[in-house]
Amino acid sequence: MSDDHAAHAISAYGSQINATPHLDRLADGGMRFDSCFCTNSICTPSRASILTGTYNHVNGVTTLVTHMDNRLDTFPKRLQSAGYQTAIFGKWHLGHGPEHDPTGFDRWRVLPGQGHYHNPIMLQPRRDGRGHTIVERGGYVTDLITDDSLRWLDRRDPDRPFALLCHHKAPHRSWEPAPRHFTMYDDVDVPEPETLFDDHAGRADVVQAMRMRIMDLDPIVDLKAQVPPGLTEDAEIRWRYQRYIKDYLRVVAAVDDSVGRILDWLDHNDLADDTIVIYTSDQGFFLGDHGWFDKRMMYEESLAMPFLVRYPRLVEAGSVTAEMALNVDVAPTLLDLAGVDVPESMQGASLTPLLSGERPDRWRQSMYYRYWMHRDGIHVVPAHYGVRTHQHKLIGYYNDPLDQLGANGPADPPEWELFDLETDPAEVHNVIAQPAYREVARALAAELARLQRDLGDDPHPAATAALEALL
Ligand code: CA
Asked: Going from the N-terminus, what domains does the chain have, and what CATH number goes with each?
């Protein structure tokens, strides 16, 4: 798993901006999921959903500061109990200390919080089992995490099965490449996304007020001081996009190298046929799409997760599915494939039927999403929830700070957006107020209510009333 790697920066997904030969190898040998979504597009919460198979209102990890209770049921714990050797290396980002350090792993060595790209420190358990100790590392983080993973694989007991979580920090900001990739893309202009100059007209007011445009990058990476003088605003956006995307793609290149090393190790150890290999990321990312960087939003580029699964014993090489998969499906899928009982409390579904090439009659036709961090001090993205079907997406911005991270200001009137993904895949036309979409909106409102009821989440009363008034 990587952090913030959007599917549209993987050539197997049709990237127009980079090539990822090793990820493509994985896709060529397995199944590509074209409709895999996170249920909350932010790091810590999505990681908790992946490990536990539950939504954030159930596991309690709704924001970046609500760290995961390490007593929760997770797939590594269940695999460990079933006799698997388990390990995690790299990004944890679910909190530290006695209540949050990794559990369910025979071995772990993780970055503190976000960690650093170059010469990082890492945490690992003390030998006496009391808390963690700090290890100083020299080198590039993606390579170090891969080194640790391969060393653990080499030293494992070959007679027992294993579950390795190789979790990269990359390509999370601040996008610092490995020295071997410093000059990659120096001589090219990376193609711009179609919606780089999206003016957000017609979208919710609270979306238009977000500070996630390429022009807002300065608090995160110091571009302002570097911008050549005398540029028009459009020219500056273009210049900033090139700076941003090239570093992002350089960092992705090292992740792709890591995937290649792990696939090579499986080949050399004659384990490729017997090993389930998944590549995914905790969420997607805006690569200049809508003029934005970052994630958080229920819009496609942020909502979609890359999801590639190779398992030659079950999965047809080079296959593709458009059925919906979710981050909460990872845990039940891995337990199911390992022959371990999937607890009722896990809310995701095992993807085994899709992986084995079946086309189940009753597979999910919609998904529920909720982002909780209302208007933090940096990106100012509003809290929202919504439903996506194969053709439509309904999003409600309830505009109530509640008690969430960085909450500021009083409640404002809720706002709603509706997109027709068939006629408007770029999501630039909000059709919520169009009479032609009234029936669609009513059906989506009912589906959203059903999902919230089934999954045990509470609708926001003012948002529900505002939607009813529109319909
Ligand atoms: Ca992330």
From this structure: 7-179+240-359 (3.40.720.10), 367-470 (3.30.1120.10)
